[in-house]
Design brief:
disordered C terminus; alpha/beta; two-stranded antiparallel ribbon; 11 strands; 8-stranded parallel β-barrel; 2 domains
Amino acid sequence: MVKIGSLEIADFPVLLAPMEDVSDPPFRYVCKMFGADIMYTEFISSEGLIRDAAKSVKKLDFSDFERPIGIQIFGHDIDSMVKAAAYAESVQPDIIDINYGCPVKKVASKGAGSGIMNNIPKMVAMTEAVVKAVNLPVTVKTRLGYDEDRKDIVEIAERLQDVGIQAITIHGRLRTTRSSVPADWTLIGQVKENQRMKIPVFGNGDVVDGPSAKYFKDTYGVDGLMVARGSYGNPWVFSEIKHYLKTGERLPLPDIHERVRVSRIQLQKSVEWKTERQALMEMRKHWSDYFKGFPNFKPFRIRIMQIEQYAEMLDVLNEIESYYSGYNFADTELDANQDSDLPSACHP
């Protein structure tokens, strides 16, 4: 059983990554339905949180169904991060997570996210201050290093463990590495093999299905895996990974009835959590992933992009289900784990 502090998770947990504009409560809900062991909020600005900015505070929302849940915060100022951590703790999540991985320029250029990897002493000091400020277990998500000349993750992991973090998730790319470049898990394996490391080490990067999960688990010996882009329009990836690790067999791709059922649940949860208009706008990026690879889908996509009424969207989902009913997935190259059309943000 993997433990984060006193929190018992699973023998080999599969985690949903914190992803801006993706891992909101409605999406987390459907991922939990299919077995995500730990989930994290979208990353939250420490400055926005301590100033009660509506967008930042809204990201603190979660339901008990999602537990165990981590709230992820980021920032460049240690005092602000300490205050934000205490604020986040007040809503009683299970974990406080620090984002040291976001490579987006507007974040990293200020010394937040992966930008702080250019200043390891400050990274350690910030982590220690957050750990001391809260009673919940503190975890960290980070990358291999700042750039090709500073692949410092083995040292960083040790030093962050020494100041009290309870688990670390390592994304197998540098701050400067594009997501199109395959993740390099070599250093993740070295962190796990380090005899000084006692906390769980989770790996992240290119985990998209059962076979990839098994490969990374067996090759690098990590304590668990974090899924990011592999979950886009594919919340079933968690059950698929667990089934494959247990049996060595892949589950069949979800058929059109299952895709419509689950996407409808996410839509309903989105409408409940946001305004109807906002939910429909933000769900548009998810429809492309739920139905990616379906032949002749363009006319439906055009209509979806224009819909402004919840009831109308439900009608279109019914049409999609009817149109593709009986569609033979065995005779297609449809792959739920294809690269997403979503724009790159702070996505692992």
